[in-house]
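Can't paste images in this forum, so I'm doing it all in text. The chain is below; anyone willing to post the predicted structure tokens underneath?
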Amino acid sequence: MAHIMLVEDDERLAALTAQFLQSNEFTVTIVNDGADAVEAIISKQPDIVVLDIMLPNQDGFSICRAVRPHYTGPVLFLTAKDSDFDQVKGLEIGADDYVIKPVEPYVLLARVNALLRRNFATAQSSNNLELGQLKIDKADRTAHLAGEEVELTSYEFDLLWALASNAGETQSREYIYKHVVGREYDGLDRSVDVRISRLRKKLGDNPEQPFRLITVWGKGYLCSKSAWE
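Text version of the structure:
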């Protein structure tokens, strides 16, 4: 469940929009006051920000400028300001899309999903991968969670990269052994299971009911896309 931060001062509209997005399997945080938006975006690092422009105390343009040095996820302006000047300005200061109110809910949903797909594909194709507060640098072979470096062995790093770069998709033991261990899975070896257990401890996962590195019984392991806030 991807996390959307909805910055909208119209409380009724915000509630209706959030309800629709939640019905489509998103987690939604609502911020009604522009003065609270910058801190909320930077601290929570949502998967995407849906941002109004005309807000009390701080407008959407200044919010976008303020968060861009600290937030790399997509920003979608959702606003009644429909001039070409405002659209160009919004995109130039760092927004990824600009949608004019009123908008059909399924059109908004399509635009949100398109931005999330593009952002995830970009992260996968580079040496840097971010899932919420989990940041992995493949070139430096380092991983940080909530700003703190996670001490990993070489094997553990390769295993984490293999799972995180395919977040949301179950990776079979056969795939992991072939691409991480470097040999075929014989059906008996449990070394990957042991290292998954160690990774969970280092990444603050629940060993009894894992929610970050999830065992998919009979199939393999899955790295959650949304459990790293």
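The chain is about 40% helix and 20% strand. The mean pLDDT is 89.
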